[in-house]
Amino acid sequence: NKIEVMTPSASLLLLLLLGLSQALPLQEDGGKEEKAPDTVDITTRILRSNNGSNEILLEGDLLAPRTRNAIMCYTQNCFWKKTPFTSSEKQLIVNAMQGFHSKTCIRFVPRKNENDYISVENKEGCYSELGKVGGSQVLSLNRQGCLYYGIIQHEVNHALGFQHEQTRSDRNNYVTINWANINPKEAYNFAKQVTNNQNTPYDYTSIMHYGRTAFSINGKDSITPIPNPNVQIGQRQGLSSWDIIRINKLYSC
């Protein structure tokens, strides 16, 4: 089953090919996230949704590569039932992906018979592979907690190859990680990575930045911006200006 991008009346899975175009960006509305009754940041929503997931997740929403054998089962009783997205949920996913079209050279198109593609599925939580891995590449958006414009763009940006902002190689110049407020078992989620920063500045406004209480065990800040601790981090509205620049630089737009 698949959701064709331009025909939201189709069925279960959104199977998409990442298409690149050197043409000028389309001028179209990227859509906006529906206003929620609270101000919960993206990271908090993602971590709540992923709580209890059976997947091995790095940094909260990056799917760790692994292989496993399937169970032997000759009835349908031992398999989870597929729950399709509604037409409005499909349209929200499409709108968030089309938000990349108006500002970048990325184009998401319906899969035909391509070997490599993104499969957006209603699984347990919000998570993605990092970059292209080949074959059918799962991007999970649980319909109970992940269908927000900003979360969708966050996970799609992981699939495009972007890591969390606060794990970039020079992060210690811009944020303090408050280890005392983080469960030692979760500390690995804050490990610095060897990142391609593309000569762009650290971006507190990135859609890829954690919120300030991510993985906190006491409600206090796990991340504090420096030198100004009051700088906002963890916005949930959509791609920042630097997110857009980085996508275009990485894909040589």
TrEMBL record:
<feature type="domain" description="Peptidase M12A">
    <location>
        <begin position="54"/>
        <end position="253"/>
    </location>
</feature>
<keyword id="KW-0482">Metalloprotease</keyword>
<keyword id="KW-0479">Metal-binding</keyword>
<keyword id="KW-0732">Signal</keyword>
<keyword id="KW-1015">Disulfide bond</keyword>
<feature type="signal peptide">
    <location>
        <begin position="1"/>
        <end position="23"/>
    </location>
</feature>
<dbReference type="GO" id="GO:0006508">
    <property type="term" value="P:proteolysis"/>
</dbReference>
<dbReference type="InterPro" id="IPR006026">
    <property type="entry name" value="Peptidase_Metallo"/>
</dbReference>
<dbReference type="InterPro" id="IPR001506">
    <property type="entry name" value="Peptidase_M12A"/>
</dbReference>
<dbReference type="GO" id="GO:0004222">
    <property type="term" value="F:metalloendopeptidase activity"/>
</dbReference>
<keyword id="KW-0378">Hydrolase</keyword>
<feature type="binding site">
    <location>
        <position position="158"/>
    </location>
    <ligand>
        <name>Zn(2+)</name>
    </ligand>
</feature>
<keyword id="KW-0968">Cytoplasmic vesicle</keyword>
<dbReference type="GO" id="GO:0042588">
    <property type="term" value="C:zymogen granule"/>
</dbReference>
<dbReference type="GO" id="GO:0008270">
    <property type="term" value="F:zinc ion binding"/>
</dbReference>
<keyword id="KW-0645">Protease</keyword>
<feature type="binding site">
    <location>
        <position position="154"/>
    </location>
    <ligand>
        <name>Zn(2+)</name>
    </ligand>
</feature>
<dbReference type="Pfam" id="PF01400">
    <property type="entry name" value="Astacin"/>
</dbReference>
<protein>
    <recommendedName>
        <fullName>Metalloendopeptidase</fullName>
        <ecNumber>3.4.24.-</ecNumber>
    </recommendedName>
</protein>
<keyword id="KW-0325">Glycoprotein</keyword>
<dbReference type="InterPro" id="IPR024079">
    <property type="entry name" value="MetalloPept_cat_dom_sf"/>
</dbReference>
<feature type="binding site">
    <location>
        <position position="164"/>
    </location>
    <ligand>
        <name>Zn(2+)</name>
    </ligand>
</feature>
<dbReference type="InterPro" id="IPR034039">
    <property type="entry name" value="ZnMP_hatching_enz"/>
</dbReference>
<feature type="active site">
    <location>
        <position position="155"/>
    </location>
</feature>
<keyword id="KW-0862">Zinc</keyword>
<keyword id="KW-0865">Zymogen</keyword>
